[in-house]
């Protein structure tokens, strides 16, 4: 299992998540996007459709009859009804249900920074778990931090 920590210091989650989603789909994987905030999920859904003009990032909200067909499923919980092996925790909150995913992305900002630090430490104690920390530079490029 791999967990990528993305510190959102320059761009909001709605700008970053379409990039992660595009890369996920390009790798032949499906993505589950999780947030407890329904309004945030709405914003993410709109951004997935329109943020990257040359990409078709089809998505839907969980709870429908077509959940299993969605390449990107937006949900309030970590149940991968679309069969996703990748999970993006868009609200910056780690959920213990994220363990079954091959790869998880924890996107956090200033308001969830301390919780992300604690999560980093706790996950570091787990056997077989790989952690990566990403920060954005002034030009907007993502760089892995040491």
Question: What are the key terms here?
Answer:
Rossmann fold, 3 helices, 25% strand, alpha/beta, 146 residues
What is the strand and helix layout of this fold?
Blueprint: E1 2-7, H1 13-26, E2 31-34, H2 38-50, E3 60-61, E4 72-75, E5 86-89, E6 103-108, H3 113-123, E7 130-136, E8 142-144
Parallel strand pairs: 1-6, 1-7, 2-4, 2-5, 3-4, 5-6
Antiparallel strand pairs: 7-8
Helix pairs in contact: 1-2
Commentary on this structure:
This protein has 146 residues and is an alpha/beta fold. The protein has a single domain, classed as DNA polymerase III subunit chi (Rossmann fold, 3-Layer(aba) Sandwich), CATH 3.40.50. Helices cover 26% and strands 25% of the residues. It has an eight-stranded mixed beta sheet, with helices on both faces. A hairpin with a 5-residue loop joins β7 (130-136) and β8. α1 (13-26) crosses α2. It is globular and about 40 Å long. The mean pLDDT is 93.
Terminal CA distance: 20 Å
From the 3D structure, determine the CATH topology: Rossmann fold
Unreliable stretches (pLDDT < 50, length at least 5) are none
Instruction: Please state how the strands of the largest beta sheet are arranged side by side.
Output: 3-4-2-5-6-1-7-8
Q: Outline of this structure?
A:
The chain has 146 residues and is of the alpha/beta class.
